[in-house]
Design brief:
Distance between the termini: 93 Å
CATH topology: Immunoglobulin-like
Strand order of the largest sheet: 1-3-6-5
Oligomer: single chain
Number of strands: 8
Length: about 150
Amino acid sequence: MKSFLLAASALLLSVTMFAQAPATSGQKAADVLKFKEITHDFGKIKQNVPVTYDFVFSNAGGKPVVIESAIASCGCTTPVKPEAPVGKGKQDKITAGFNAQVLGVFTKSITIKVAGIDTPMEIRITGEVLNEVDFAKYEKEKGSRKSK
């Protein structure tokens, strides 16, 4: 009798736990956050000169959204997310900062998790970090092309 009651209790507990899936399961963050662009190319940037870009988005969902986290793929990228809920139809931004210390081409991602939504989304920054001499050459060439 005890084993029957234990099994029935375990079954009831399991059914209750699985029945409480959130109403937004299956929805993706990209369904409610509509970004003007999800990739930004900084182009050629000077080494040791940090850069930032604002990824502007609107809330296309039916209720306010809370961005739980914005996590960068590495420590050289620093995302800043809105702390307050973003109202239905309202705009806000996620600022992506990049510390341009390492020379070369880069592609970095920021994973955005929205409260109550299972599938996060990614935004990306790209570019190329040049040393001071190469950046000066690039700027000079770019300036001479504009004057023609």
